[in-house]
Specification:
Low-confidence stretches: none
Strand order of the largest sheet: 1-11-10-9-6-7-8
Shape: globular
Largest sheet: 7 strands, mixed
Structural class: alpha/beta
Mean pLDDT: 92
Radius of gyration: 17 Å
Number of strands: 11
Distance between the termini: 11 Å
Order of helices and strands: EHEEEEHEHEEEHEHEHH
Helix content: 40-55%
Strand content: 25-35%
């Protein structure tokens, strides 16, 4: 089994509630929201919107900091745009070297590059905004390992808990901490009476079919 860690339940629910208040979440009664290329579902989250709310960014970074302090990386690597922005905040707050990953399309396909701080022979933590299929995080971790890094953990703000992603993480021996998950977010939305019966059925069916 993949090493899959969470903050305390109250903190998971707090982050989920803040994301709902921030209008970062869209819930429909059909699988018509694009989560990732080739993946659709009834619930999608736009984490770029967290930067509209400074308190939310501060709280997220505080929880990220707890994971960083627990696992003691020597370098952090930001994945994608939002992950890199969060990693940049954490790098400044915790005085840790920062690298970031970006993907470039060549004629032979898509390749991942690591820029910024040197990751060779360093204990690296990958910071990402959300975990969908796990493929992009796998590509980043693989590139870091080729450069001589030791990946100690992936920390995601949000995880869809998809079986596919957890299988990739397990195969790659990549432990994951998620600050909150689709199930916690959905429970908070239901408690706040933001979900009608059609949406409830659609999300429940999707979670049962796709998630751990």
């Amino acid at each position: 089994m993949v090493d899959y860690a969470f903050p305390f339940e109250d903190e998971q629910r707090e982050i989920a509630s803040l994301l709902l208040q921030n209008d970062s979440v869209t819930i429909t009664n059909e699988n018509n929201q694009v989560l990732s290329p080739g993946i659709q579902g009834p619930l999608v989250i736009d984490l770029k919107k967290i930067f509209q709310t400074p308190y939310l960014v501060s709280r997220v970074c505080s929880l990220f900091s707890e994971s960083i302090n627990e696992y003691q990386p020597s370098t952090i690597v930001g994945a994608n745009i939002v992950g890199s922005l969060l990693a940049a905040n954490l790098s400044f707050l915790l005085k840790l070297p920062l690298a970031y990953a970006h993907r470039i399309q060549y004629t032979r396909g898509l390749h991942t590059h690591i820029e910024g701080a040197n990751v060779s022979e360093n204990r690296v933590m990958i910071i990402t905004d959300q975990m969908v299929t796990g493929e992009s995080v796998y590509a980043i971790a693989d590139e870091c390992k080729k450069l001589g890094a030791h990946i100690i953990r992936v920390v995601a703000l949000f995880s869809y808990q998809m079986r596919e992603a957890l299988q990739i993480l397990q195969h790659s021996n990549l432990p994951l901490t998620a600050l909150t998950t689709i199930q916690v977010l959905f429970d908070e939305a239901c408690d706040a009476k933001m979900v009608n019966s059609l949406k409830h059925n659609a999300v429940t069916k999707w979670i049962n079919a796709n998630c751990m």
